[in-house]
Backbone:
């Protein structure tokens, strides 16, 4: 089964072609995330050429749907949706925070992936270790929707998870906070945590993890039609936050 994996959520993304879990080719991005509208198709063509395959030979499109760059997410989803429709193939949107957990697979009961969301905020997910995956390995399940968290609230969130706190969803236990290797702001955020909280890096690009999660859902029939492929922005766009209704004058009768 051939999978085309796409990650345009940040400048550290790219495109890869996999045969099940075997990587056939990979084309990594070298430009800003805002340039994906120009570079993505070249990356895809390069990856397909190196794998000696074409769009029609792809059995599944697996694309990261965020969080991350608004422009990058939109470009990646639009491309995956278009290719899936054109070649009548299934498509799977993969949350980048979940891909970080899949990549790192930390030895802890709780995994808390953290991404710099800029503007002094962070994208944060919370995942709980499941009983065991289909292959006998550890898997994690989401414990709630991803959040936009300010630094002064982050340590409280981690403490609530590790000690159980007052939230029914959190039963306490070991916690691993995950960051990407290049994310210096997230690394700095973790410096203020207690020493018993594990620090784990999800190293390198996340295309392999995106493939694994896409393939897992494909095998379980958990796919959406390309028409229902949706983004996970978490934060509203500037256009939404800055929108103001236009006052309409009312004439007296």
Residues:
């Amino acid at each position: 089964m051939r999978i085309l994996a796409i990650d345009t959520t940040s400048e550290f993304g790219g495109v890869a072609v996999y045969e099940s879990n075997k990587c056939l080719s990979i084309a990594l991005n070298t430009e800003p995330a805002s340039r994906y509208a120009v570079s993505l198709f070249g990356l895809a063509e390069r990856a397909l050429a190196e794998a000696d395959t074409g769009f029609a030979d792809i059995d599944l499109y697996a694309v990261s749907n965020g969080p991350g760059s608004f422009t990058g997410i939109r470009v990646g989803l639009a491309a995956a949706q278009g290719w899936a429709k054109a070649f009548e193939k299934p498509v799977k949107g993969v949350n980048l925070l979940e891909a970080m957990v899949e990549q790192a697979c930390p030895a802890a009961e709780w995994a808390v992936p953290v991404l710099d969301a800029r503007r002094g905020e962070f994208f944060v997910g919370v995942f709980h270790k499941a009983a065991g995956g289909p292959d006998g390995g550890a898997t994690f399940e989401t414990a709630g929707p991803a959040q936009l968290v300010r630094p002064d609230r982050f340590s409280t969130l981690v403490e609530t998870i590790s000690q159980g706190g007052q939230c029914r969803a959190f039963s306490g236990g070991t916690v691993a906070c995950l960051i990407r290797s290049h994310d210096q702001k997230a690394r700095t955020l973790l410096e203020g945590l207690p020493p018993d909280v594990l620090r784990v890096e999800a190293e390198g690009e996340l295309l392999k993890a995106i493939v694994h999660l896409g393939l897992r859902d494909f095998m379980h029939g958990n796919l959406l039609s390309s028409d229902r492929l949706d983004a996970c922005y978490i934060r509203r766009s500037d256009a939404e936050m800055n929108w103001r209704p236009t006052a309409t004058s009312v004439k007296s009768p």
Summary: The two ends are 70 Å apart (CA to CA). The CA atoms of residues 27 and 88 lie 24 Å apart. The domain at 97-202 is CATH 3.30.420.40 (Nucleotidyltransferase; domain 5). Residues 70-87 form the longest helix (18 residues).
